[in-house]
Amino acid sequence: MTQDEAIEWVAKVFESSHGQLTPDTHRDNVPAWDSLGVLTLMASLDSEFGIVLTDDDVQAIKTVGDILDIMQRHGKLI
Amino acid sequence: MRFILVDKIHDLDPGRRITASKILPASEELFRDHFPGFPVVPGVLLTEMMAQAAGRCLDAEGTHPGRAMLGKINGASFRDWVKPDQEIVLHATISQNRPAFATANCFAEVAGKKVCSAELFFVFAPHEQFASNQEDQILKAYWETHPDMQSKWKR
After folding, report:
1. Which residue of A has its CA nearest to B121?
2. Structure pTM?
3. Distance (Å, whole) CA B7 – CA B91
4. Order of strands, sheet of B17-23, starting from the edge strand that comes earlier in the sequence
5. Are A43 and B103 in contact (CB < 8 Å)?
6. Is B127 a catalytic residue?
7. What is the mean pLDDT of residues B45-63?
């Protein structure tokens, strides 16, 4: 998956438009990135990529780029 | 009407799958409006029935930090009308079961025909938020008829 595709995937998870998100987008600026959004992200990463987030991961994720970093770490980004 | 939308649990594998059923009698007042002369069970209630069945499947496991609550409805579809007095058989298979969330693939059928389906996402609300003296009568009835299961699962 390319970075652009990954951002599109993140946008879908948070019910946002693709063009609204960049790696620098902070969670505070994504309306659906609330407590339910975090759980949705955890479930989606688990079911679609086999990535199980730790509590530390969840605490550390503040931006779209942080999600991309985790996907990169798990070999899911080209 | 009460909001207990499962009458009976037929089969239960806690945390994994459940089959349950519900009949909405024609005497329910909602059918006066949904719809006049053409009474059908609302899709939102079918969805809630599936959610209540799946939620009981998760709650029966007794391993989560709270009670299963519907958080998200993904891809619900309604394929056929469901009339009053028809037995609606509810099926849920838990596809993701984690401490903080769970996902259930659900469908409902009438007379062997699938009438609706949805993927339901659950979160867990702390037990302290609920009345402590309330026992789930539907689950209780199932445990009473399956004492072997009760000794294995019920806490």
Report:
1. A40
2. 0.89
3. 13
4. B8-13, B17-23, B87-97, B101-110, B113-126, B66-78
5. yes
6. no
7. 97
Residues of A with CB under 8 A from a CB of B: 36, 39-40, 42-43, 46-47
| pLDDT reported for residue A19 | 86
From residue A51, alpha-carbon distances to A67, A78, B15 in Å are: 11, 16, 21
Helix pair angle (A35-49, A64-73), 10° resolution = 20
Q: Which residues of B touch A46 (CB under 8 A)?
A: 96, 98
The pLDDT value given to residue B150: 73
Mean pLDDT of A10-29: 93
- Torsion, CA B74, CA B79, CA B81, CA B85, rounded to 10: -70
Take residue B13 and report the two structure tokens written for it.
Answer: 């594998």
A42/B100 Cβ within 8 A = yes
Cα Rg of chain A (Å, integer): 11
Strands B113-126 and B66-78: antiparallel
What's the mean pLDDT in A30-57?
94
Q: CA of B101 to nearest chain A CA: how many angstroms apart?
A: 7
Residue A62 has phi, psi (to 5 degrees) of -120, -25
Average pLDDT, chain A: 94
Mean pLDDT of B9-29: 97
Q: Which residues contact A21 (CB under 8 A, 6 or more apart)?
A: A7, A10, A11, A14, A30, A64
Q: What's the CA gap between B94 and A62, in Å, rounded?
A: 30
Q: Say whether A43 and B101 touch across the interface (CB within 8 A).
A: yes
Cβ distance B115 to B80 under 8 Å?
yes
